[in-house]
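Entry 14. Ran structure prediction on the chain below.
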Amino acid sequence: MKKKYPELTEPQSDLEDENYIEDFEDRYYEDKTQELEAAWERAKKNMEDSQAPEEEFNAKKEKHEEKMKKLKEEYDNWVENRGNKGWTLPKGSKSADTLLKLIKKTDEMISKNKLKREDKEALKSIALSTSKTNYLDPRYVILQF
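Output, structure tokens:
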């Protein structure tokens, strides 16, 4: 990787905010956990309603537990490597092109989350009653003509 893409070995300046990265990792883990739990609850309810066989229920339960375990391992790896300058991927080497795709995907996720955070901060100052005062009743618009 260092030989083929030397510019990627240098740290990026926009990733220096350590608190933001930790907050993002924590929120990402919580959101994904809630998403997986909600999906499992829906699937469980659907299987109970349709009276699915127990083998299917157990298979889906194992699949859910695998996903939760994989997510937990990923999060634990993040927490373990916080602050390490030489952070590496888990076991199993990946090609440089695969790593570039992962980097682009992560960059996109970070930029989207930064935009969401900025939008949320900007929209805090807008009053909810503004839409009521700016609303034009269609009856009045027709009467003007």
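Residues 81 and 93 are 17 Å apart (CA to CA). Will compare against last week's run tomorrow.
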